[in-house]
Amino acid sequence: MRCASDTFSLDEVVALAGRANADKLEYECSLEDRLEMLRLTFASEPRVSIGVSSHAFYVDMIEAIGRAFPGQTDLHFIVGFDTFERVIDREDRYTSRYHRSFSDRIEAIQCLFGRSKFIVAARAGAGRQAVEQLLKFEPAVPRDQILFLEFPEELGEVSATEVRRRRRIGEAIKGLVPVQIEQYIEEQDLYTV
Question: Quick count: other Cβ atoms within 10 Å of Cβ 20?
């Protein structure tokens, strides 16, 4: 988020913790723990606010976010490549699960990209070429609404999944998360089962 904020001169960033997830039935730690980790991470950054989303899908979040910010605000979602693939939803796995009703996934894509941009960060070897390849087969997505975030390769490999995996098998997570988050995870004994 910091890198995207600096690269694209974002005035404010809202870090959202979700009550629901598109691909999980439940989270591995409580909403309260996730909010506390966000608070600890961004405590000294005045441009970052923390929020909670009751919806799992960006197309459902857009209305509420739009109401919270003035009409002239350019909304950007900062996501990794894996999440961006789910947003495009080529297999149409999610349209029927949206809170708002759409006739099809193309209508949902047009609604979402008509009101927001996506900043897509490289993840696990999926860089600019992977984004371009995905978009090549999705003409409904306006190319000017997609921004690519060049990301140092070592950061692109860091993921919450890796942190949880290491905790479950008793490996250190030093360097994968900020020190205060590492301490919090250890103090709360998170991700050990």
Answer: 16
Which is more confidently placed, 159 or 110?
A: 110
Torsion of CA 15, 155, 185, 179, to 10 degrees: -100
**Residue 121: per-residue pLDDT:** 87
Element housing 120 (H / E): strand 117-121
pLDDT, tens only, 114-140? 999 999 987 655 678 888 888 998 989
**Three-state DSSP string of 64-103:** HHHHHCCCCCCCEEEEEHHHHHHHHCCCCCCHHHCCCCCC
Query: Do 151 and 64 fall into the same domain?
Result: yes
Q: How far is CA 49 from CA 10, 24, 40, 149, in A?
A: 13, 25, 12, 21
Length of the chain, in residues: 193
Per the structure, the count of domains in the chain is 2
Band (50; pLDDT cuts 50, 70, 90): very high
Q: Do 150 and 162 share a domain, yes or no?
A: no
Contacts of 86 (CB under 8 A, 6+ apart): 22, 23, 94
